[in-house]
Automatic annotation (TrEMBL):
Organism this protein belongs to: Rhodovulum kholense
InterPro entries: OmpA-like_sf, PBP_domain, Phosphate_ABC_transporter
Keyword Signal: yes
Signal sequence extent: 1-23
Matching Pfam families: PBP_like_2
Keywords: Signal
Origin: domain of life: Bacteria
PANTHER family on file: PERIPLASMIC PHOSPHATE BINDING COMPONENT OF PHOSPHATE ABC TRANSPORTER (PTHR30570), PHOSPHATE-BINDING PROTEIN PSTS (PTHR30570:SF1)
Coiled-coil residue windows: none
Domain (PBP) ranges: 135-349
Identification of the protein by name: Phosphate ABC transporter substrate-binding protein (PhoT family)
Length: 526
């Protein structure tokens, strides 16, 4: 008899007490048939065999072995089952593609079925068709996903926002612990809310963009004719996705600032339907998602001082576009089947992230942005530079960042969603530090602040934020060798703003939105 290799052992357990019913001998054989181990089967639970062997108690992942013996659990007991429920932003396109990719990566085939509102994905072994897993997928809304999580109708909630405080409280009451903890949350992809018009729109030139206040006035009915903003004399038709679970559930309503949309707004089943309707309506204006633009034309948002904000893959990753929608998975069950845990791990792989990009979302793979690509931001910085010391500060900034590239990970302070995104950016940086990705190089943690309290106070706040990111990285990267990489903290205060808040108030973003854009810690690599 040969001992199973370490990859097949889940853990060395403390001594397990046998159940009153007599345990029987079984033999576990590796999938390639080269190794086997025998022992008394103490328990089979969540895809784990627990045996009493001559080596002591062992736990073995059922995915890695076959079982022989009268006490082996039946085929039905060995099927891994878990359920996902929540936002159609993930459930309609991305999640089915990810399940298919996961199955292919593990050499399994996928059989689709429908059970009422749920889609079922049955994963089978390719050689004999043995059912290995059944994944249930229900799409409704983020709120419904969390409700299913709390009632046991789902193991994983698909969410297009950070979990709300009352949902966290209900989770504790349901015995699920703290669902807001970072280890219960997986950021899967990024999306954004964007205003769109038809290619032959009556608004005039969509490329010039619209001030945020104008977009808001169009959506709420304060402006009802395109001629009011320089377009053709034609009535404005507003198109919006139908809010599932109330307006407060829809990320699209972030652009409305809590105000009601015009009563005549046409509501559609989802963001993709909005894009299709707007693309066919020259008098239309809609809110849709970056991932479902289709034939509609994105309208840039004026950010003051002549700047425009346009959603792009890199702009969404950095958070430099203001209306980013994070797509999370929240895990409810404290112990998922091993295959479910393997699926969650798969979602962070390059193969899964490529599938996410192909589905139209902004993926989470790190990208590098050279200093030479910062032209618009540098132009705004020069225009807004303080006469007495601004240009000298700009020269200092260019000197520090020359030869470096900006990484798409960016840390911001703000609401819960911004904090969740920032934490999701720190974690991969910490893992990269631990694996030596940045060995021999310098990570520049560049703090920026809004122009609020004067140059000295702005720089002090920016430095405090950058130092906090440095400390968070050191705390998260416990296995990193910081003797092989340098973390450099710099503070540039109100230099390099993304949104202008002073000189051109009519074109400016709301103060809170501009503040969140401008106060940030960028990560540069040299």
């Amino acid at each position: 008899m040969r001992c199973l290799p370490g990859a097949l052992l889940c853990a060395a357990l403390s001594l397990l007490a046998a159940r009153p019913a007599p345990a029987e001998e079984v033999t576990l054989i590796s999938r390639d048939g080269t190794v086997e181990i025998g022992g008394r089967l103490l328990e089979f639970d969540d895809g784990i065999y627990r045996l009493d062997t001559i080596y002591g108690p062992l736990a073995v992942n059922a995915d890695a072995v076959t079982c022989e013996g009268a006490a082996c659990p039946g085929a039905e007991a060995r099927v891994a089952r878990f359920a996902l429920s929540g936002t159609p932003a993930l459930g309609d396109v991305a999640m089915p593609a990810l399940i298919e990719g996961f199955a292919a990566a593990r050499g399994m085939t996928v059989e689709r079925a429908v059970d009422g509102r749920r889609g079922l994905f049955r994963l089978r072994a390719p050689d004999d068709g043995t059912l290995r897993a059944e994944i249930a997928l229900t799409t409704g809304s983020t709120g419904e996903g969390f409700a299913d999580l709390l009632t046991g109708g789902a193991d994983i909630a698909m969410s297009d926002r950070a979990i709300l405080p009352d949902e966290v409280a209900h989770g504790r009451e349901a015995g699920l612990g703290d669902l807001s903890a970072s280890h219960r949350r997986r950021l899967i992809a990024l999306d954004a809310i964007v205003p769109v018009v038809a290619p032959d729109t009556r608004m005039g030139d969509p490329g010039r963009g619209l001030p945020y206040a104008t977009v808001l006035s169009l959506l709420t009915g304060e402006i009802v004719d395109w001629s009011r903003i320089g377009g053709t004399k034609a009535p404005v038709t507003v198109h919006l996705p139908r809010p599932d679970g109330g307006l407060g559930q829809s990320p699209e309503t972030r652009l409305l600032e809590g105000r009601a949309a015009v009563p005549s707004a046409r509501q559609h089943a989802d963001a993709a339907a909005v894009s299709a309707a707007v693309a066919a309506d020259p008098m239309g204006l809609g809110l849709t998602r970056f991932s479902t633009l289709g034939g509609a034309v994105q309208v840039p948002l004026a950010a003051g001082c002549g700047t425009r904000l346009l959603a792009s893959r890199q702009g969404i990753k950095t958070g430099d576009y203001p209306f980013v929608v994070p797509l999370f998975l929240y895990v409810g069950a404290p112990q998922l089947p091993p295959l479910a845990r393997a699926f969650l791990d798969y979602l962070a792989t390059p193969a899964a992230q490529i599938a996410i990009r192909r589905a139209g979302f902004a993926d989470l793979m790190r990208e590098e942005i050279p200093l030479a690509r910062q032209g618009d931001r540098l132009a705004l910085a020069i225009a807004e530079a303080a006469p007495e010391s601004g240009l000298a500060e700009l020269q200092r900034m260019v000197t520090v960042l020359r030869g470096a590239v900006r990484l798409t990970e960016t840390v911001r302070h703000g609401p819960e969603t911004d904090q969740a995104l920032s934490q999701a950016g720190i974690e991969p940086l910490a893992r990269a530090l631990e694996t030596g990705t940045f060995d021999g190089r310098t990570l520049i943690l560049a703090g920026f602040a809004d122009d609020a309290d004067g140059p000295d106070a702005d720089r002090a706040l920016a430095r405090k934020d950058a130092e906090a990111v440095r400390d968070a990285l050191r705390a998260a990267a416990t296995a990193a060798d910081f003797g092989r990489v340098r973390l450099e903290v710099v503070a540039f205060g109100a230099l390099l703003p993304l949104a202008c808040t002073g000189a051109h108030a009519d074109d400016a973003l709301p103060e809170a939105v501009a503040h969140r854009l401008n106060r940030r810690v960028e990560i540069w690599l040299r």
